[in-house]
Each structure stands twice: as structure tokens, then as C-alpha cells.
Amino acid sequence: QVQLVESGGGLVQPGGSLRLSCAANGFTFRNYPMSWYRQVPGKERELVASISTAGGSTNYADSVKGRFTISRDNAKNTVYLQMNGLKSEDTAVYLCSTLWGLVRYWGPGTQVTVSS
Q1: Nearest of 34, 77, 87 to residue 59 by alpha carbon
Q2: How far, CA to CA in Å, does 45 sit from each of 55, 102, 113?
Q3: 64 and 92 in contact (C-beta within 8 Å)?
Q4: Contacts of 45 (CB under 8 A, 6+ apart)
Q5: Cβ(90)–Cβ(81) under 8 Å?
Q6: Residue 39: which H helix or E strand, with range?
Q7: How do residues 67-109 score in pLDDT, each as one tens digit?
Q8: What is the distance between the alpha carbons of residues 24 and 19, in angstroms, rounded to a whole number?
Q9: How far apart are CA 95 and CA 63, in angstroms?
Q10: pLDDT on residue 101
């Protein structure tokens, strides 16, 4: 059974940094690309960043390019999202996700609030 659990969210001031983690189990983690999304109430879920199986290829939403970095540790079955230069518009629930077969799996999410 696929399980994804995010951690590392919290309250941070504008310009600050956070590092999110997503621990995965129930599948062969190293064989699957991973993604981070974010969700704001009343808005569509947004793809923030994605990473290939070995980590050699990454993609980012234009809104976070140059500020966020996605990485993974296949030995620890964990994907990370380093977020620097946070802005108020980055406030959201952040969820990690993978496509396993024909089903997209989601973690419960972790809240990130950027406010002074």
C-alpha cells in the first residue's frame, strides 16, 4: 500500500526558508518520479516541482524557479523540497505525489504559511 507522509511545514517570515520532506513506503521508491504540489483553498492544485527517478532531471513551476529545489534520497525513500526566498503567495498546503500505475497517490499535506 502506497503511503506518503509530508513534514517540515510551518510559519515563516517573508524571505525565510523551509525544507519539506516526504517519506514514502509501500512501493519501490527509486523506480518512480516524484512531485510536489500545493493547494490553496478555492484554487486548483498546482504542480510545484518534479524529479526523475535518479534525480538527474527536475522541473519547476515558473513561480518558484530559482527559489525552490527538489531533491531525493533513494536510500531513505524520501523526497525533499528546499524553499528559499519565501513569499506570502507561497502560503499553501504542500503535498507530495507519485503516479503508481494508473493511480496518482497523495500524502495528507503539510501547511506552509508565509507571514510577518
Answers
A1: 34
A2: 23, 19, 16
A3: no
A4: 37, 38, 39, 95
A5: no
A6: strand 34-39
A7: 999 999 999 999 999 999 999 999 999 999 999 889 999 999 9
A8: 16
A9: 17
A10: 83
Task: Give the DSSP H/E element, type plus range, for residue 51.
Answer: strand 46-51
pLDDT of residue 100: 84
Neighbouring-strand partners of residue 37 = 47, 95
Average pLDDT over residues 64-68: 98
Listed in sequence order, the DSSP H helices in the chain are none
> Which residue in the block uniquely carries the three cell numbers 514514502?
24
User: CA 72, CA 81: separation in Å to the nearest integer?
Assistant: 9
Terminal Cα-to-Cα distance of the chain (whole angstroms): 40
pLDDT digits (tens, 9 = 90+) for 6-46: 999 999 999 999 999 999 999 999 999 999 999 999 999 99
Q: Which amino acid is at 68?
A: F
